[in-house]
Write a structure and sequence with these properties.
The protein is mainly alpha-helical and 141 residues long. Helices cover 58% and strands 4% of the residues. It has a two-stranded antiparallel sheet. Strand 1 (95-97) and strand 2 (103-105) form a beta hairpin. Helix 1 runs antiparallel to helix 3 (25-36) and helix 3 packs parallel to helix 5 (59-72). The radius of gyration is 25 Å and the shape is flat.
């Protein structure tokens, strides 16, 4: 529920400043209630709440959210998923465990990627101008 309330704040691009602060009151009240009942918040919920508080760009709201998350003892979960990021090996021959569970070299991982598509903007612009010209002539005629 907490994640959903925060998602509403984060997904609404029309909110800014005080509007975000007002929209954060429900998630903040929910976390206060969770704290009073000793219900731990999930790591994704805490991440969403902190991200939503950051969108408010208000230090007091951020401090309140961080304090509530600390009381909930869920703040230690914030950013914990960063450990799962596989570091990029320093050399092409360095072996690393991939997310699929296989161990490969950096070169093997890079070679398995599809080629970067060519970017021929000249042809694209020429085609767009030709289509625009034809449509313009049809509209005028």
């Amino acid at each position: 529920v907490l994640t959903g309330l925060c998602a509403k704040v984060l997904d609404d691009s029309s909110l800014s400043g005080n509007d975000v602060i007002v929209a954060l009151q429900d998630p903040i009240r929910l976390l206060e209630e969770m704290n009073s009942r000793r219900v731990p918040a999930g790591s994704r919920s805490v991440m969403a709440l902190i991200d939503a508080a950051a969108a408010a760009q208000d230090a007091k709201i951020m401090a309140q959210v961080m304090s509530l998350a600390a009381k909930n003892r869920s703040i230690s979960q914030y950013g914990i998923l960063q450990r799962e990021i596989t570091p990029l090996p320093t050399s092409r021959d360095s072996r690393v465990k991939c997310p699929d569970g296989k161990t490969r070299t950096r070169g093997e991982r890079l070679d398995s990627l599809p080629d970067v598509p060519t970017d021929d903007r000249g042809k694209e612009v020429t085609s767009a101008l030709a289509v625009t010209t034809v449509l313009g002539l049809c509209w005028v005629a």
